[in-house]
C-alpha cells in the first residue's frame, strides 16, 4: 500500500512510498483511509524521533474495508472516523474498534478527519472542566485546532467564553464568530474570575490562567505550545481569599473510555454544520511538505487536511 514514510532526508521528514499492509488484531477493523488531518505535535516531533520508514499519524477518516473478527465495531462499508497513535498516513490502517466513530452517510470525510485529536481533546477537556451552562470558561491558544473546537463546544454548552490569542486584533472577529464572548492576549487581561480553563499553551499563560480561577474552578492542561516550564509564585496554592478547591488536571486521550461515542457525536456535529472543522489548508498527500511547512512555521491557524488519493 502507499503511505507517508518517515524519511529525514526528505522535506519535512516525510516521503510518499510503499509500506506493508497492516494485519488487524481480532478487535480491530481494517479501514481504507480517505483523508487525514495533521497535528502540530506529530509533525514537529514524530519524524524527528520515529525510526526511518515508520507510518505515523493519529487522525483518519475513511470506510471500513474489513470488520473486526470478534464482531465488535462497524460493518464493512461503513464510513468512519478513527483514532490511534500511528498508521493514519496510509491507504489502510488497523484500528481498535473502541476508537472508531460512525460518520453520517455523505459527510465530507476530509472535514471529519479533523475530529479525533482536536475535537475529542476539546470535548474531554471541557468535560473535565465541569458544567458549562452560565459559567465563565477560558480557552488559551484558541486559534489552534483544539482551541477552535473548544471555543465552539464551550459556546454550545452555554458558557461565557473567553479566548486568548497572540494577536486579538487579527483573530478576534474569527473567534467571536465561533462563539467567543471576549478575545484577549493574556488570561490576565480578563477582568473577572474564571470557572474553568482549557489551556493549550502552558508556561506563563497557564500560571496566569490559574491565578484567575474562582473557588472550585478547574484548569485542564491540554497543550504545551510554549515548550516552557510553569513557575508559580509563592502563595499561588493558598486556599484562602476565594481560592478554595481550585485544581489543575491532565488527561491522555488514548486512556479515556468511551472515545468511540465521542467521535461519533463530533462527526455528526461537523456533518450537520453545528461544528465548523476550521480547515485552513487542504490538499493531496503528495503535497505534504507544503502542509507540514506551514504548520511548523505557525502559518496555519486551524486544521490541515491531506486527501489520500
TrEMBL record:
<dbReference type="InterPro" id="IPR013149">
    <property type="entry name" value="ADH-like_C"/>
</dbReference>
<dbReference type="InterPro" id="IPR011032">
    <property type="entry name" value="GroES-like_sf"/>
</dbReference>
<dbReference type="InterPro" id="IPR036291">
    <property type="entry name" value="NAD(P)-bd_dom_sf"/>
</dbReference>
<dbReference type="GO" id="GO:0016491">
    <property type="term" value="F:oxidoreductase activity"/>
</dbReference>
<protein>
    <submittedName>
        <fullName>NADPH:quinone reductase-like Zn-dependent oxidoreductase</fullName>
    </submittedName>
</protein>
<dbReference type="InterPro" id="IPR052585">
    <property type="entry name" value="Lipid_raft_assoc_Zn_ADH"/>
</dbReference>
<dbReference type="Pfam" id="PF08240">
    <property type="entry name" value="ADH_N"/>
</dbReference>
<dbReference type="Pfam" id="PF00107">
    <property type="entry name" value="ADH_zinc_N"/>
</dbReference>
<dbReference type="InterPro" id="IPR013154">
    <property type="entry name" value="ADH-like_N"/>
</dbReference>
<feature type="region of interest" description="Disordered">
    <location>
        <begin position="1"/>
        <end position="26"/>
    </location>
</feature>
<dbReference type="InterPro" id="IPR020843">
    <property type="entry name" value="ER"/>
</dbReference>
<feature type="domain" description="Enoyl reductase (ER)">
    <location>
        <begin position="9"/>
        <end position="306"/>
    </location>
</feature>
Amino acid at each position: 500500500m502507499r503511505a507517508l514514510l518517515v524519511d529525514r532526508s526528505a522535506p519535512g521528514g516525510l516521503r510518499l512510498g510503499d509500506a506493508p499492509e497492516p494485519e488487524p488484531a481480532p478487535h480491530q477493523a481494517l479501514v481504507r483511509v480517505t483523508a487525514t488531518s495533521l497535528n502540530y505535535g506529530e509533525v514537529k516531533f514524530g519524524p524527528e524521533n520515529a525510526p526511518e520508514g515508520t507510518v505515523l499519524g493519529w487522525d483518519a477518516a475513511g470506510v471500513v474495508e474489513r470488520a473486526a473478527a470478534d464482531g465488535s465495531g462497524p460493518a464493512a462499508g461503513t464510513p468512519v472516523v478513527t483514532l490511534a497513535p500511528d498508521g493514519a498516513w496510509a491507504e489502510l490502517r488497523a484500528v481498535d474498534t473502541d476508537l472508531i466513530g460512525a460518520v453520517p452517510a455523505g459527510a465530507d470525510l476530509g472535514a471529519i478527519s479533523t475530529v479525533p485529536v482536536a475535537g475529542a481533546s476539546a470535548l474531554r477537556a471541557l468535560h473535565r472542566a465541569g458544567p458549562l451552562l452560565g459559567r465563565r470558561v477560558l480557552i488559551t491558544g484558541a486559534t489552534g485546532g483544539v482551541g477552535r473546537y473548544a471555543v465552539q463546544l464551550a459556546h454550545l454548552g452555554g458558557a461565557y467564553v473567553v479566548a486568548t490569542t497572540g494577536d486579538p486584533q487579527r483573530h478576534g472577529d474569527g473567534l467571536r464568530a465561533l462563539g467567543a464572548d471576549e478575545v484577549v492576549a493574556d488570561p490576565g487581561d480578563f477582568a473577572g474570575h474564571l470557572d474553568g480553563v482549557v489551556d493549550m499553551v502552558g508556561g506563563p499563560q497557564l500560571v496566569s490562567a490559574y491565578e484567575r480561577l474562582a473557588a472550585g474552578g478547574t484548569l485542564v492542561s491540554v497543550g504545551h505550545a510554549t515548550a516552557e516550564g510553569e513557575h508559580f509564585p509563592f502563595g499561588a496554592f493558598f486556599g484562602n481569599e476565594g481560592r478554595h478547591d481550585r485544581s489543575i488536571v491532565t488527561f491522555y486521550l488514548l486512556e479515556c473510555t468511551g472515545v468511540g461515542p465521542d467521535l461519533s457525536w463530533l462527526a455528526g456535529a461537523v456533518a450537520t454544520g453545528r461544528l465548523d472543522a476550521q480547515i485552513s489548508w487542504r490538499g493531496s498527500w503528495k503535497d505534504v511538505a507544503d502542509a507540514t511547512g506551514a504548520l511548523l512555521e505557525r502559518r496555519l491557524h486551524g486544521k490541515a487536511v491531506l486527501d489520500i488519493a
